[in-house]
Every structure is written in C-alpha cells, then in structure tokens.
Design brief:
- This protein is of the alpha/beta class.
- It folds into 2 domains: about 30 residues; about 140 residues, Nitrile Hydratase, Chain A, CATH 3.90.330.
- Helices cover about 45% and strands about 10% of the residues.
- It is built from 10 helices and 4 strands, in the order αααααββααααββα.
- It has a two-stranded parallel ribbon with strand order 1-4.
- The chain is globular and about 60 Å long.
- The protein starts with 7 loop residues before the first helix and ends in a 15-residue tail after the last helix.
- About 30% of the residues are buried.
C-alpha cells in the first residue's frame, strides 16, 4: 500500500493527530485555524482597501506591512507568510500570479478562485499579461507599466487598486462594496458605477 492508496480524509486526520501527539500544535489550534481560513472572504480584503482609501495612516501601514494592517482590522495572520501589498497608480499596474501552484493570501481574500490556480492563467499572466487583462475587460493605457508579481509560499501579495473617481464622499462600507476579488489580484479595476 502506498500513500496514494490511502483515503485523503483519513490521512489528514492521522497527520493532525500526529501533530498533536508530538506537541507541535493542539487540536484547538488546528480547529481555530480551520475556522479562520473558512471564514475568510474577499470582503476582508475589500475592507482593507476601503480603509486604505480613506485613512492615510492605515494606507501607509498596509503598504509597509500588510499582515500588521490586516491584524489591526481583526484578521488573524499569525503563522502565515508575510503579506505584501502593491499599490496601483496612474503610472504602474500590478498583476498577481503564482507561477508554481496557487499561493494566495487566503486570510484576506479567502480561497483562491478556480481560474487563479489554472495552468492557463499562470502561464498567460507571465507570457501575455495585457492579453489576460483584456479578457477581463481591463484596458491599460500603453504608457502604464504593467508589473507581474509572483506570489510564493514565502510571501503572499495583494493589490491596493486605485480609488475610482467621484467617490470622495463615500463611506468605507460603500467603497468596500465596489472592490471585487479581481481588483485585489489586478485583473480588474474598481469602477464607481
């Protein structure tokens, strides 16, 4: 019998039990991490973006240390890879990809969408990033520098998109409602309409 012959659920249970038996973690810590991961959605990242758009101090913190910024909003980041935040500007646009697998900032964006994990997206985002953006309806001016950033097991990335025009008087909640998962990966940009 090989590992591939074992039931994945039974194998995962055995691994968890082994971690507890060896004193590496506790059953409560494992349950807490599962609960935190399952609770994560793109709404968390959208709340971070909206706060960054309205609070310059939070924006500075988010760009300097994304994990610390997330934790100030009650998003648990302990034990996770660092979170980098890339700011889109009129001169530069960022596109996040994980070329090897599906490394994704799950604590702030939830589980990765199916297309983020696909071989087609991973390959094309590097080879033809403007073409990928066009497929998402995102057209960048020719003079905008497009930077593709590889999310890894050691460092996760998300995008701080540009705030749409004509939203100056909007509340954080209303702004957060504009922000889509794709905006925080860089395939789309938020729109006020």
């Amino acid at each position: 019998m090989t590992l591939t012959d074992l039931d994945p659920t039974a194998l995962l249970s055995a691994l968890r039990a082994l971690l507890v038996d060896k004193g590496i973690t506790s059953a409560e810590e494992i349950a807490d991490r599962i609960t935190a991961t399952d609770a994560a959605t793109p709404a968390r990242g959208a709340a971070m973006v909206a706060k960054a758009w309205t609070d310059p101090e939070f924006r500075a913190l988010m760009l300097a240390d994304g994990a610390k910024a997330a934790e100030t909003l009650g998003i648990p980041m302990r034990g996770l890879p660092p979170l980098g935040v890339l700011e889109n500007t009129p001169e530069r646009h960022h596109l996040v990809v994980c070329t090897l697998c599906s490394c994704y900032p799950r604590a702030v964006l939830g589980y990765p969408p199916f297309w983020f994990k696909s071989v087609a997206y991973r390959a094309r985002a590097v080879r033809d990033p403007r073409g990928v953006l066009l497929e998402w309806g995102t057209t960048l001016p020719a003079d905008v520098v497009l930077t593709v950033v590889d999310s890894t097991a050691d460092y996760r990335w998300m995008v701080l998109p540009m705030r749409p025009e004509d939203t100056e008087s909007w509340s954080e909640a209303r702004l957060a409602a504009l922000v889509r998962e794709g905006d925080m990966i860089g395939v789309t940009v938020p729109r006020s309409i």
